[in-house]
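Reopening this one. Same input as before:
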Amino acid sequence: MQTKIVYDAEEFELSLKAYLSYISRKMKKDESYSPHPLVRAMVNAVDGAKNTGKPGRYMGMSGDANQYSDNQERKTIICIIEMHRDNTMTILDIQDLSLQKSIPIKVASYIFLLSIKFDKYEGDYIGVNEFIDTVNRTIPQLNIIRFKNDEWKEARDYLVKNLNTINIPLEMKKDYEKDFMSIKGDTEWEDYPPRVRSTIATIWMDDKYQELYRDGVMNIVNVFLDEKYLKTTMLNSILMILYGPSSKYFEDVLEWNLFTDLNMNNTISKTSTKIGRNQPCPCDSGKKFKKCCGSLIK
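Same output, byte for byte:
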């Protein structure tokens, strides 16, 4: 029988205690405010526990259908917590129903942190440059590089000349061949299959813009066809990078120790990283921790 892994709220320290208070307060003040499903699901679970005032297990669930014009969900999250008699809380599981797998605690904590930093920008959208800057500063293991769309024709021709040097995984080769065959001479850049765009951009940037790459991190070239996107969409893209199907291709590039589960046994860890009261608040408000999110921790 597999042992159930549990996570203590102290693993999040600021991220859970202060961020959830911040999100809950913001949702009450602004009914149009719609945080990422992971954030809302956790808030729903915590609010359920607060409303009953009793110890026990509570579940929160949320999706993002309301964020899109077609009303179709891209991400559905379930959070299960256990509230104890002393008002401490244990996270039992965070499930991504879209991928049918659990979200590691470290990945979840990064989504909380990015969410509150995205809130510096008003509205449901975030600009591409702001997104890249925020992610690269928040997650030190990532370096997102933006492809220059005005160079797409040169990049395409460069790929054609160097096709023999590209190593495509065998299980993906047929799909790639099908995508490439769908491209005609007059096909516009925005109409290229996404994975072809990504391949063209990555090969080009890797050869022509090595100064944008950093050693010891995961360098990811992204193609952005618009100048701004829904915050929820961008957070979903980070989730896919950190623990989705594509992450397996980076296992030999860097160690994933910062994205593995913190507590790998049945005991509740009491380890936490303390933030000094006079240190700058991690939410990037510019205020001291004690005057900002730290004031929310009771």
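So the earlier flakiness isn't reproducible anymore. For the record, The chain has a mean pLDDT of 77.
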